[in-house]
Design brief:
By secondary structure, the chain is an all-alpha fold. 76% of the residues lie in helices and 0% in strands. The protein has a domain of 56 residues.
Length: 117
């Protein structure tokens, strides 16, 4: 028959601490699982952050279009055209984001819209 190995007092104390922590974690797990997930809060948070980003993007796009017009006026036609095209894409980004919201069905109770800045 094998003889059982005696554990050191420090090992026993650490095992007791680990067991205590595991018990506390398991006791609180039921409370964590009981939390109700509400997807509307997530949708609203994403929507609000995108609305702020779209505001800045729209203003930046308009500024790029204006800068492109000034570049064409100065005689730098190629740079002006690229600036106008880029500004148009940046300014149209809210419409694209709104289309994605519509496609994926997360446009309910959101402030994201083309004309609702």
């Amino acid at each position: 028959m094998k003889k059982l190995v005696q554990l050191r007092p420090t090992t026993t104390a650490r095992l007791r601490q680990v067991a205590w922590v595991a018990l506390v974690v398991l006791a609180n797990t039921a409370r964590l699982l009981a939390q109700d997930f509400d997807s509307t809060q997530l949708k609203t948070g994403i929507s609000n952050s995108l609305a702020v980003i779209m505001l800045f993007g729209f203003v930046l796009g308009i500024a790029a279009v204006i800068a492109g017009g000034f570049a064409i006026r100065r005689g730098d036609v190629d740079q002006g055209k690229m600036s106008i095209i880029g500004g148009g894409i940046i300014a149209a980004a809210p419409a694209v984001i709104f289309a994605f919201f519509k496609i994926f069905g997360i446009d309910d109770n959101s402030s994201v819209g083309i004309g609702k800045f």
